[in-house]
Amino acid sequence: MIPSERCAEFEFSLDADRKIALASAPGVFLPTGTTKLLIQAVEQTVSEPAVMLDLGCGSGIVGLALYLRGLVKTPLFASDLSEPAVRCSRMNHERYGCSSDVRAGPLFEPWSGSKFDVIVDDISGVAQEVAAVSPWFDGVPCDSGRDGTSLVVDIIRAAPRHLASRGRFFFPVISLSRTDVLLDEAANNFSTVERIARQEWPLPDELKLQMPLLDRLNDEGCIKLHKRFGMVLWYTEIYCASNM
Questions:
Q1: Per-residue pLDDT, 2
Q2: Which of 18, 76, 124, 206 can bridge 100 by disulfide, Cβ–Cβ 3.0-4.6 Å?
Q3: How far apart are CA 212 and CA 199, in angstroms?
Q4: In 10 A of CB 226, how many CB atoms?
Q5: Is the pLDDT of residue 29 over 90?
Q6: Buried-state track 41-64, b at ≥16 Cβ within 10 A, e below 16
Q7: Positive or negative, the Cα torsion across 98, 102, 106, 107?
Q8: How confident is the model at residue 141 (pLDDT cuts 50, 70, 90)?
């Protein structure tokens, strides 16, 4: 267990009527607006309980939110590279009565030979230099490569082997990475790739201080930013891929 003095409680708001209290710990990725958009996109697409994998589970919020919506055929499967994240997910699942199988390991390594109806991926797709100066990765490793595609490309390539017949794979594409590489990879590995959500975000204050770095990465095609009404904007898109 995580020592109680190292645990921190936080509340994550899914919408105006839904808030979930969770435990976290140092080195555990906290949910973001992209996490919320991903949860909402799955809720809008999946209509019945499914054998589900929460890949890159962090505090466990994605799988837990979907479980509370009645969309998970328990046990909920979840994994993360971080041992503290695995322990936090187990604690949070138990708090809400969610039977789960949570494992530690990189990407799909803990799930050799396993197949799922739904895989929801919330593993980082942010350019590594951006992650290092962002407000999101406080002590959380992010080996995503210079253009933010390294981890997500590996996940996209492996995902079809872990999907059951008629299975669906949900993943975010973030413009703080090279989005065309990710979408080309998805098209090469799935027969159907459908965008189901999109949200633009203003640049956080912490990243406004890093504009020389961001402008360079944008000019080099590693990320994609645009300006509107005096604001610097980036976006998240959520995709559902399948081989149905």
A1: 47
A2: 76
A3: 24
A4: 12
A5: no
A6: bbeebbeebbbbbbbbbbbbbbbb
A7: negative
A8: low
Distances (CA, A) of 172 to 14, 92, 111, 121, 153: 17, 23, 21, 7, 12
Concatenating the DSSP letter of every residue in 34-56 gives: HHHHHHHHHHHH--S-B-EEEET
pLDDT at 173 over 50: yes
Task: Give the Å distances, CA to CA, from 208 to 85, 146, 195, 204, 205.
Answer: 29, 19, 28, 6, 5
**DSSP strand pairing (116-121 vs 76-80):** unpaired
What is the CB neighbour count within 10 angstroms for residue 194? 12
Which neighbouring-strand residues pair with 2? none
Q: Return d(Cα 57, Cα 74) in angstroms, integer.
A: 16
> 3-state DSSP call for residue 157?
helix
The structure tokens listed for 139 are 């002590």
CB atoms within 10 A of CB 135: 11
Mapped onto helix, strand or coil, the DSSP state of residue 203 is coil
Alpha helices in the chain, H assignment, sequence order: 33-45, 61-68, 83-95, 128-133, 150-158, 179-189, 205-208, 211-219
Q: Is the pLDDT of residue 120 over 50?
A: yes
pLDDT band at 6 (very low <50, low <70, confident <90, very high): low
